[in-house]
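Appendix B, record 7
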Amino acid sequence: MSDRQLITGSDTIAELVPASVAYDNHVVPLRLLAGTLVVATAEPLTTETQQRLHFILNRNVRGVIRTPEWIAIRLHELYDHQPECDDGDIGVTWYWPNWHWYDGEQLNVKCSGWESATHWSGCHEFPPDHADYDMWRWIVSLPQYHRLVNEKEIPGIRRIWHRYVAKCRPTWFCRKTTGSTLEDKS
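Structure tokens (predicted):
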């Protein structure tokens, strides 16, 4: 079985780690063992790198040592070429919809992420006049979004939101004008 063949459902080994993450961290995904991703690296994984990979990939990561030349060859074989990147840092942002609160009418949603080797955390503020205020009120009310939501998921969620609003428009506007919340199921 080659490393690119199926290992878990429809995922291939190369799909477990995005090319940009593999190249930035100089790791090659090898296999998935009991939910832990085993990666090859030229040096032992630092705690910071292991935590960053765990955060980005949403799984435990364990490293095994290979030569730098082996890593370079395998990265090229798995990903064909180095990802196209601009000169800026590539980062990732995660929203935590189940960690939200209201400050008056303003909705605050916890968020965190990685940029280069730096971890940050804070909150995203959605005042009532924000274009996504109603969408985020909807997101925090749904159990399927009570998980980490990658910023790259937001356009897809926005499309679902627009279909929902189009389908429920009369009910939505009645609730909005009467001051009821989305959680009210009349």
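Remarks on this record: The mean pLDDT is 78. Residues 54 and 90 are 17 Å apart (CA to CA).
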